[in-house]
Amino acid sequence: MRDKLTLGIVAHVDAGKTTLSEAMLYGAGVLKRHGSIDAGDTALDTDEIEKRRGITIYSREARFVWEDTMVQIIDTPGHVDFGTEMERVLPVLDIAVLLVSAISAIDEHTKTLFKMLSYYEIPVIIFVNKMDIARVSAREIFSEIRSELSDEAVDFSAPEDKRDEEIALSSEELFKEFEEKRSLSEESLRKAFSERRFFPVLFGSAKSYERSEDGRDMAPEGVIRLMDLIVTLGQSGPKTEEFGAYCYKVTREGSTRLVHLKLTGGSLKVRENIGDDKVTRIRLVNGDRFESVPEITAGDTASVEGLSHVKAGQTIGQCRIERKPLLEPVLSYRVLPPSDVSPEQLYDQLMILGEEDPSLNVAWIEESREVHIRLMGQVQLSVITESIKNRFGYVVTFDAGRIMYKETIGSSAEGIGHFEPLRHYAEVRLLITPGEPGSGIEVDSECPTDILDRNYQQQILSTLSGYRHKGVLTGSPLTDVHLTLVGGKSHNAHTMGGDFRKATIRAVRQGLMKACPVLLEPWYRVHLIIPSEAVGSALNDLMQMGGSTGQPYSRGERTEIDGEVPVSSFMEYSKRLMVYTRGTENIELSSAGYRPCHNTDQVVEEKGYDPVNDGRNPVSSVFCFHGVGENVPWYMVDQIARSEPVLKGDDRVDWEHSREAVEKAAAEAEEILEEKEQRLSGPGAMEKKGVKRSSYQGYSGMSPELEEIFIREFGEIKRPLAGDFSTERNYDREQNIKDAREDYIMSHPAIKEKRRSENKKDRYLIIDGYNVIHASAELADLFRENMDSARNALEDMVANYQGFDRAETIIVYDAYNRKNNAGRTLSRGNITVVFTREDQTADAYIEKFTHDHRDRDSVRVVTSDNAEQTIAYGNGAVRVSSREFLSELKEAHI
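Request: output the structure for the sequence above.
Response:
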């Protein structure tokens, strides 16, 4: 066989993707009869929801041989709400067919798809479908393709010499070949096509079957021409000698977990290991059928059983597919289960759907015991509702969707983070600058190795790129910033493993406080087709929403409007539009990316986020004064940082804005302190007469060293006190600080409620140690080499986690097989380590512990043992799987 090609068919909904796939499979002899979307009997849309709705929701695979080439088709969803499912397929494609409907021609979603194919650098053939019912000529459609998609589109229905002459203009090398031979070789065409120098355009109809003399349907002529062109121009992507694969989808067939992947190098056999998993079966899928094979090689797509730890979007082995997805859900919903389904059960079952579609971002909110997911739109929401009912047997509802905001910055700043509790030391200096829209978070280093060791720099860069940084306006994800490591400082004796992670996060946050934060919101690109008499109302509505529109254009009795509008304004608009169009409207939506929020002040006020009190993402730094670690407010860090100020005078930093931000924060802090002092010195305080008073009243609650720095930078608090000037109020400083803290707590409901809960129960975190070790590939490898090293590594991570979780933490290890073992309980800093006694398993220890504490304490149990989870749940404990806990450990490295 000459080659293996992975072909993706992408298009807007109703353009005919599944019908085209069906026609190709029929033409290649794979199908004995061709199905119909309307009849619900196609080979690829096999899900009941797909049949009922008549649309593709899940990507499906099929394969056929044509002209000695194995073509592996992946049919993708067309509806914008399932765009993330479609995008996960793109990295594995060697070639794509972009389907254009001759009826609707080039709509906004088609433009988005073409841009995505460009982003993933995929060669594209454009096939114009439904020409049998087209209202305009092929020439007009081709002209629109060139103007709306690419002027490098080439009409392959034109004579060969004219076609080759047009392609030859795309490069000097091709032009020379054409000048010499008056044609282009197949090899030259294939190379130019793979480099995306031209985009062939074909015309046809995937439904135009003709009857042969023997009464059998013949595949449409345009489809046959397309199949010929695919194998003529297509060539498989680069392969590696060593094993590599990319997982583009995870599905389930009953209790069997199927990992759909493409091999980019080497081979894969049944019974081979991938990490901790063993391949138990390999399937070559063809629609609703499959063939089991013992081995696959580079270029093959297959579904594999036995890989319980591989996730959708994951690269394996030597695969080097690294692309940040373009599409992401912009709406977040709280999922409301029926009364007989617990939130924990709902979460566990939604995590199964989350494995299949990672873009759902299934999240457990511990404080409120709620489950949240992210969705692209209303169609996906209704499909998820149906899926839950069909698979799990109950009906869920959703609250009103919330917009997924993001944050960036409008000015550059220096960020400094210092982490120095007793026997720890790290300081990081960053240059934080605005990035290009859509660029995400980019990181680099210009720090010399004589300032920071390369190993420390790698830790910092890893944290910058891997941590989920939050903005300081609403706590939304940070994006479109460039983070450059410029300096820092370590300590030979005191710098430990996680210190630079903590300092790095503080540096980012401190820099964001000094930069000009910008709130971003998602926008839709809107295409409306409405009755002409409704145009005025629609244009006015779009403008009122804070959007913009182009010039309307009429087509008979209907008018088309293109515009862009904030998602937050458009969420309920379809209902209003239906009223004055009497249900005759047609709305097409596509993502227009993120842009500055049109109502920032309102959103910030509604969110009520306070970056200073976000304990998981601190803006303050920790400095050591006389052996005691003390939190220093972010606006004071610049003045007491210990490392060399390498950016001083650097014009890449907006120093003026940074200074204004620091001075404003200091003034606000002084105002708060002043209010506290006035409350403390008001009526009812103890008075002592005859003592001369100083006008300096002090900064309450600060250590002498910190207060000295504050006075030096911002001056003394000098203000007259209310009351008789012949007396001085003498009060106990510690008591008044305590009173002020109490006032603060009582005036903040969230903190008050947290304290109430803490007073009600002690919190425990109990961990099945060996279960967690074997759930981590790294720890499991270490365990096979040295058991003690694996335990020590886990205990170090858990001790670091306990620093912000603050629960009483216990790691339990099985030691029941050891003869004459009485068990041991050890204290390792801030955690407790238990080795069970002879004949006592870790399960038994955890069961007894949860039973003893069920009525009075809050207990979380970390294990993936199903029986242990069931017992713990019965004893009132919260269950956390080992893999979820490992993710928490990774996310909690502040």
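The longest helix spans residues 655-680.
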